[in-house]
Amino acid sequence: MSNRPLLGALAESAAGEWAAIISLVFGGCCSNVWALEAVLKNYPSSGTFLTFAQFAYVAVQTISSQIVWKKGSCVPRWRRNVVPIKRWMVQVVLFFAVSLMNNYALGLKIPVTVHIIFRSGGLCVSMLTGYFIGRKRYSAGQIFAGVVITVGIVLATMSAPKPPRRVSTTTAAAAEAEEEYLSESVQYVAGIGLLSLALFLSAWLGLWQESTYRQYGNQWREALFYNHFLSLPFFLPMYASLSRTFSAYMSSPPVTLLAVPTPDMALFSPVDDAKRELIKWRELAVPGALFALAVNVVTQGLCIRGVNRLTSRVSSTTVNLILTVRKAVSLALSLWFYGSGWSWGLIVGGTMVLGGTMVYTMAAPPRVEPSKKKEKDAIELDNRGDESDTSSISTALNVRTNGVASVPDALRQR
């Protein structure tokens, strides 16, 4: 009897923790995709600026993890990195290229629905690179899942509906439309090519990160900071494009955040017939595109936090299942809220991709010889650590929830 209050408190605590995790994963990640599409709807070619904003936000947010405060000293000291900078630079270049390609492809007539489905196919590419480069082996169930995912991606890509033409009165949007020298079909093919290249680079990045963690330990906080901070100088040659996009965002239609009460100055007017009121409500408004961008980067951080908390609670298999469902919710949200357009081929292909991911997650692993079991267990332990700590932000940062250690789902965007 005496243990009931304690057990009840633990149950309530666990329920509250799970409610917070589910809210962060589904609320944070899905609203992240919603805000992304809100920006891209009128500014489809702002992928470079989006990538820069995300990288700068994460770099500022994680800089505290690299600062050490000594007792009795008011001056902080920079934490000495465990992994050599020259090794980080290889990962930084790959990470920067993958993130930029994924976001830039959205400006090449790639619907967000196809973007979500196509990037979910990273599992197939990871299996190929793991087999030929990482010397990994897969069971019949896992191979079957990879085939289903591949067929689903091809079907969804070939059946993608044409995005609706955007009608905008802004000068920036009109100028952007005039600068389109390629047809929509050519841009679509180029976008698919960029996403395909990004998938292979992402798989290579996963293998490199796995090797780094095996040598130097699971330094995920260090990786998260240096991947984003050291990437910022690469945006310098793109200053003109970033400046142009920022100006376009500033000129976007305003969004009212709240109304602030202020004293009515007419009360102090000597004119008798002046309209007098005790207070007047003044609206606080910001450019709509900047507001959507702020929501995107903030919810990205919430998404990352939710995925990290999730991976600390359950196995990587359960993480994969929950994040697969999350992608399905994001896909449905895009179709319902923005009317992104659909076709039966897109629906069937998306179902095959999501279903294949679940099959892979639940498939039995290949048999391992007893002499190699110890080595395999050590590798899986490293991979589990990679997934639990890095399958959070960016990128999205789109995630190594596909079964390979790589960049986080949030940062990899959708």
UniProtKB/TrEMBL annotation:
UniProt key word Transmembrane helix: yes
Name of the protein described by the UniProt record: UAA transporter
Transmembrane domains' residue ranges: 49-68, 88-106, 112-133, 140-160, 188-208, 229-250, 284-307, 319-338, 344-364
Cellular localisation: Endomembrane system
Pfam family, one: UAA
Organism: Cutaneotrichosporon oleaginosum
Compositionally biased intervals (Basic and acidic residues): 369-387
Topological relation to the membrane, as annotated: Multi-pass membrane protein
One GO CC term on file: Golgi membrane
Region of interest (Disordered), ranges: 366-394
GO molecular function, one term: UDP-xylose transmembrane transporter activity
Entry keyword set: Membrane, Sugar transport, Transmembrane, Transmembrane helix, Transport
